[in-house]
Amino acid sequence: MRKDKIEIKYPGTRAAMDGNTAAIMCERESTDAAGAYPITPSTQMGEYWAEAAAKGHINVSGRPLIFIEPEGEHAAAAVTAGLAMTGLR
């Protein structure tokens, strides 16, 4: 098969990015909510998630994102557990 005739099954855009950005780009599409406390090295993930939620991003389930920023790391774990217990991803 000639190179100019190759059809790409899932075309996309190539981009260079860090791991936090790559993770949040996947997570914001596949999950419903996040409870995050900004602390290094994951601060960017919480910031990007909050930004996507504020802009009204709709995930693959057709639901808007929910973002909760609690008062600390332990509270973030509790928020995440509570979200999971209510059936959110």
The beta-strand count equals 2
Order of neighbouring strands in the sheet with most strands: 1-2
Work out the strand percent. Answer: 5-15%
For the CA atoms, what is the radius of gyration?
17 Å
What is the helix content? 40-55%
Number of helices: 3
H/E series: HEHEH
Total number of distinct structural domains: 1
Poorly predicted sequence stretches spanning 5 or more consecutive residues: none
Assign an overall shape. elongated
Quote the distance from N terminus to C terminus. 42 Å
**Mean pLDDT level:** 87
Report the biggest beta sheet as strand number plus sense, adding barrel if it closes.
2 strands, parallel
Briefly note the structural class of the backbone: mainly alpha
Give the topology:
Layout: H1 19-30, E1 33-35, H2 43-54, E2 66-68, H3 73-85
Parallel strand pairs: 1-2
Helix pairs in contact: 1-2
Q: Keyphrases for this structure?
A:
89 residues, mainly alpha, two-stranded parallel ribbon, 3 helices, 7% strand, elongated
What's the gist of this structure?
The protein has one domain. The protein has three helices and two strands; from the N terminus they run αβαβα. Strands 1-2 form a two-stranded parallel ribbon.
Give a description of the structure.
There is one protein chain. The protein has 89 residues and is mainly alpha-helical. The protein has one domain (19-85). It contains 3 helices and 2 strands. Strands 1-2 form a two-stranded parallel ribbon. Helix 2 (43-54) links the parallel strand 1 and strand 2 (66-68). Helix 1 (19-30) crosses helix 2. The longest helix is centred in the last third of the chain and has 13 residues, at 73-85. The model has no long low-confidence stretch (mean pLDDT 87).
